[in-house]
Sequence to fold (112 residues):
Amino acid sequence: MKIYFRKKKLQKACSSERASIRMWGRENAKKLHQRLRELEAADNLSVIYCLPAARCHQLKGNRTGQFAVNLKHPFRLIFEPRHDPVPLKDDGGIDLTQITEIIIVEVEDYHG
Fold:
């Protein structure tokens, strides 16, 4: 998949291992870079849904339309499809096989 970033500062922090460690700690930085490699290597979002450790899932509430993958608990890498309109299946759900570009929104613990 093609990956874009919502903010330049986020892109810089995700592009450098050193900056990632400074921002989120060593373990999160390691997981973050692993997840970014997995996302880049995937042909589409349905591939990421098949990776049990990533635990890719759609978000709800004020984050409807966004997705998250696990980093070091409780942190998540949050992203959204970069498609307008977002491709849908006949039943109205998002067609994950058609999501080939994403925008990284943030890295955070949204549970707290």
